[in-house]
Amino acid sequence: MAVAPLAIVVPILAACLLIAGGKHVPRRLADLVALGAAAATAVLCAILLGRVWHGHLEVYWFGGWHPRPHGIALGIDLAVEPIGAGAATLAAVLMTAALLYSQRYFEAVAPFFHGLMLVFLAGMVGFALSGDLFNMFVFFELMSVPAYALTGYKVEERGPLQGALGFAITNSLGAFLTLSGIALLYGPTGALNLAQIGASLAGHHPDALVIVAFVLVITGFLVKAAAVPFHFWLADAHATAPVPVCVLFSGIMVQLGLLGVARVYWTVFSGQPALHAPALVHTLLALGVVTALVGGVMAFLERHLKRLLAFSTISHTGMFLAGIALLHAHGTAGVALFVAAHGLTKGALFMVIGITSHRLGSVDEVELHGRGRGLWATGSLFIVGALALASLPPFGAFAGKSLIEEAASGRGFHWIAPVFVLGSALAAGAILRAGLGIFLGLGEARPPAMEQEAEAETETPETKGSVSRTPAVMLVPATLLLAGGLALGLIPHIDAAFERAAVRFQDRAAYAAQVLHGHATALPSAHVTSGPATSSYLYGAAAVIGAVAFALAALYLPRVRGRVTVLSRAGTGAARLMRAWHSGHIGDYATWLAVGVVILGWSLGAAIP
Amino acid sequence: MTPRARQTLMLVAGAGLLAFFVWGAVGLPDFGHYRGPYGLVINHVAGSERQVTNAVASLVFDYRGYDTLGEELILFVSVVGVATLLRETRGEELPAGRDDATEVPDTSDALRVFGVVVVGVTLLIGLYIVAHGNLTPGGGFQGGVILGSAVLLVYLTGELVMVRWVEPGTLLEILHSAGAAGLVLLGLGGLIAGGAFFHNFLYTGTEGGINSGGIIELGNATVGLEVMGATILMASELLEQLLVVRRGSPA
Amino acid sequence: MSVYPYIVAGWIMVVGFFGIARSRNLVHLILCVSVVQSATYVLLLAIGFRDHATAPIFQGVAPTARAVDPVVQSLTLTDVVVEATVVALLLALAVDAVKRFGTLDPQDLRALKG
């Protein structure tokens, strides 16, 4: 049963060794040790996942400090359930792929790169498995700090510094708000263990404190998850961080913020009447939908490939958040499945961009137009990935999204599905536009909605100039990741497994009983879906067709420009405003953070009876 | 946003944030009326279960030792991050030897003598606080910072090049990593000894004695080592920048 | 007043945020971040305080004596040292910013837009 702490300790020890060796460790050895540690972690996390696969919960108490009578926890526990274990496994798998990829991607690597990546992994795994609120905060910080350093990694360029500063400051501010929320919860309950706080709050009379605490605690997680208006740091960070790091950022790090929100809600707040379910559902749903649309539009306006993918991640975050907001097992299951498929697919897409940069020396869509025609393997990965993200049935992203849509219509929110179609079409359409333009040379090089401003910083590639062949060690991980993302939708009974996981995730009473008193409860029977409904297939097809339509329109529109000048002028005006808001100025970001908390807070607070 | 717009917006948002927070904080137990149960239970049992008289230390290194591991790693990785961000890049070089320290102000003899005395005393105090962390207020974190500052005193009262001597050489990096790894290994020790990770597997001694607390005192020692290494490394990385920038500037 | 210390904590946090919005110097901005952090310490320690109680050190004192909460103290003490190093990381970024941008004014960090 000691597998759980080992999954965290293995990458840490490897990191300590590599960092102690510092400059004296030869590159090949460092690569090998890091890869080995990440792979070992992936295996350990997979073992954990296997143990809880059928909807179990396994609890591990550090120091052997089991709770006292009356459910008072003195120590810290890891509460391993399928969704957390799945997230940890995804993180480890992505890290292994990224480390493999970076063997050729970086010509020379600074001595501490591997160490930073491994500690990053340990932080993510620890966060996903934790059962204690303050411990979640600690590992949240532990996964953030290496991320700051890795973003600013290319110290010789200006962009990474700005990106790292914005990232570090906004995420730190978010973390402090979370800590304030934790303190507010600690006051009346005197507990830091998730189950114990939840049990205590269930008997607490509904008052303002619970709402304020909830909003503050989830703010930090929402900043990490890059929900609007906390999202400004993400594009900057992605634009400047090295590609293997971006694989992890978009693949799992951002989604862990959402895991934090969901975990805290279900284990701590779900028994508390003050968090008036309809108000909560509406507020978070609105937040999710706005995020999905803003992300989609901004992705469409981008020409820098990494920023484009970053905004598409933001768009997906919005969809994930909306799915969680439904507070329904199908919704949560759908989000988990969608996150897994998205993480693998997005990771593959980033790797492709890295390969393109390696071979052709640029990450600018306009500059690269048509130059990718020879890279047929890379190009097909990119285009298939874009289609998969547009929820091409029956692949992973589609399967997840159909579960969410089912939950939404079950709750009466029939408008969610069309909104998702629009969001996916925009975000995936942008990626598809880039792919078709670069790898097939379709359409014109200068789509209209883009500003002609010269990029103040052309990203210098992290590798040497053009190489005649794509190294296998870069192509193979990308292919495997994409294959995984696609295959997730094809595994039989996969949705039933995720459903069980979601039901377990949402059961506060059973969680508390097992963590605090050791009584393992059997899983209540889940309402297993019978597979995606026909309407889901229609929506999926609509999203894919929409994405293709948007992509082709963007590529070929200049030819019909005359007819749509009015629209495009209004469009460019709005676009210019939105881009102005993403100014890169840290003071702006902090201001939007404060504004966001106030809006979120008062919309939930206004609903208190 | 224009500066004025940003300020106004933040003013409004800040007021809203404060109001929201106070609205919630009113629901907290009155100041001075903490009612537990976590803290109250720990106060009662720390002495009898772990034979330490500092309840805070029992939490930091035993009951919530896993948190401390996480925090210590954040510290560790921040320092590594500083080293990564300030690493030598093309076009920069550090002065190689003593004669390159052209910008060092002369320090008086009185100051240097004072420095020797103060550095010694500070080191002693630091070691005392690390060692007695399980009994009286103090411990690895606090003592480590004091030990680190003793080295910084060398810079203040002596010559700048003295800090070059303590430069992040391999020894310091190894020590720093050893401190971080040490805490992990302590935790693993508990695991290997048949209990859970971070199980206190060493003899906990008698309450109030200097070697009470089992892994708590070892935890204090490794953390003290790590924090000391971290403080010195961080400071010297930043101080090196002083030399680098000066060399780069037209003089 | 029984809620006054909590209000102070909230005030410090908001002041820190305002400082960040107004800041014209990266070092000042980073220190404002640490001001926001110190608000959380005030809040934590205020929550753990007990009237007429002593420190949670039981050297020569019976364990049943009235003592303040040690939990918030343990949280704060590890946090203080850790966040000092995170501030160091931010300051390292500021040093790099001076080298690349030649300025510490956030308005002039213009490499990333849109």
What keyword list fits this structure?
heterotrimer, A: 609 residues, mainly alpha, 3 domains, two-stranded antiparallel sheet, 71% helix, globular, B: 251 residues, 9 helices, 0% strand
Give the topology.
The complex is a heterotrimer of chains A (609), B (251) and C (114).
Chain A: H1 3-21, H2 27-52, E1 58-61, E2 77-80, H3 82-105, H4 113-129, H5 133-151, H6 158-189, H7 194-202, H8 208-225, H9 232-240, H10 243-269, H11 277-300, H12 305-325, H13 329-360, H14 365-368, H15 376-389, H16 396-410, H17 416-440, H18 472-487, H19 494-506, H20 508-517, H21 534-556, H22 565-581, H23 586-605
Antiparallel strand pairs in A: 1-2
Chain B: H1 3-25, H2 38-50, H3 55-63, H4 65-85, H5 109-131, H6 140-157, H7 160-165, H8 170-192, H9 215-248
Helix pairs in contact in B: 3-4, 3-9, 4-8, 4-9, 5-6, 6-9, 8-9
Chain C: H1 4-22, H2 26-48, H3 70-101
Helix pairs in contact in C: 1-2, 2-3
Written overview of the protein:
The complex is a heterotrimer of chains A (609), B (251) and C (114). Chain A has helices at residues 3-21, 27-52, 82-105, 113-129, 133-151, 158-189, 194-202, 208-225, 232-240, 243-269, 277-300, 305-325, 329-360, 365-368, 376-389, 396-410, 416-440, 472-487, 494-506, 508-517, 534-556, 565-581, 586-605; strands at 58-61, 77-80. Chain A has 609 residues and is an all-alpha fold. In chain A, strands 1-2 form a two-stranded antiparallel sheet. Chain A is globular, with a radius of gyration of 23 Å. The model of chain A is unreliable at 447-458 and 560-566 (pLDDT under 50). With 251 residues, chain B is mainly α. Chain B has one domain (63-248). Chain B is built from nine helices and no strands. The longest helix of chain B is centred in the C-terminal third of the chain and has 34 residues, at 215-248. With 114 residues, chain C is mostly helical. At the A-B interface, helix 1, helix 4, helix 5, helix 6 and helix 8 of A face helix 1, helix 2, helix 4 and helix 8 of B.
